[in-house]
Amino acid sequence: MDKNNFWNTSKRPLVMLAPMEDVTDTAFRELVLHNTIPGHLDVVFTEFASTDGLCHPKGRENVAQRLVISKTEQQLLIEKGVKIVAQIWGNNPEKFFKATKYIDENYRFDGIDINMGCPVRNVVAQGSCSALIENEPLAKEIIQATREATSLPVSVKTRIGLKKVDTERWINFLFKQPLEGLILHGRIQKQMSEGEANWEEIAKAVAIRNKVAPDIPLIGNGDVFSVEDMHERITKYGTDGAMIGRGIFKNPWMFQSPLAEINTEKRLATLFSHLQLYESAWGRSRPFPVLKRFFKIYVSDFRGASEIRKELMETNSITEARRVIENTLSKIVS
To answer: Which domain holds residue 209?
Structure first.
């Protein structure tokens, strides 16, 4: 057993925070880690990093932002016992090899995850991500190229089908590849994020895994909105863990405290901290409007939340947003 392979050495169940574009940057991951009790979260992922971009001298600097781990985050990862995985995407095996080599030689990640599940139409139209579900030969080449470029454990995050449910064929194929882990979202690409995630198909994948590759962990993903829900699904469907994506928007404190214990002051203080972390990590190199998607996460479920949120949505800088929060907090304290 490889002691550096967290897929084999970590506890069960494995609790993971999903990779999300313009969400799981180093600032947000650091915020989540601050609010995590050791043992409640096992693995976090970066945003999606393009292999094309990482292989292009002029595009690398921009794409490499998705792989940044701040010094404070690195310390928290160690303190909380959390692993961090770089997720990459593309459609060219040679670029997967080169990009993985670059990551392996320049960063300190605990694993590489191949995105074979992103449903965004223009990405799929390029033959990347979910498109690989219907291109076994290319998917195989990409996995092999990534595997050859690193000693880190390699995993795949994918879906149960492209235009239709195709779990049996696709999962049988994946479990015959040299992978250390598999994360399965219970929707097809065509659904995007609509409808309910089909955990019965995830259970079918577990049964396939048990026959084909019993040593490869399988993580379920889709519609996990609380720690309680996560444990219920793991028990019912037999996965080795669960990945939480949009659920973190309902409760960024889910790895720390029950939502009922989060009062208005703590919500606003957490948003204030997020603004500070974002500014510290990126300065002006990333646009301020990206932060606006987080306002509803923190400013909700209390009296007057909609008015404060409206005021925040009209701000145009971190300084302006910070001022709104400070004014609101002063009224609460007084």
So the answer is: 6-250
